[in-house]
Amino acid sequence: MDDHRYAILDVSNLAYARWFTIPGSVWKSDPGTLFMALHSTCSKLQDDLAVDTLIFCFDGGYAFRKQIDPDYKKPRRQLRAEETEEEKELRQLLFDQLQAFRENHLPIIGAKNIFYAPGFEADDLIASCVHNLPKAKKIYIVSSDEDLHQLIEGNRVVVFKPTKKIVVNENDFRQQHDEMPPCLYASVKAWAGCPSDNVVGIPNVGIKKATKFVMGKGPESFRDLFFKNVELFNKNIQLTKLPAPGTPRCIPVPQDIPLQWEILAEAFKSASRPKGIRQ
Question: Given 3.40.50.1010, 3.30.70.920, 3.50.4.10, 2.40.50.140, which CATH number is that of 5-172+242-268?
Answer without folding.
Answer: 3.40.50.1010
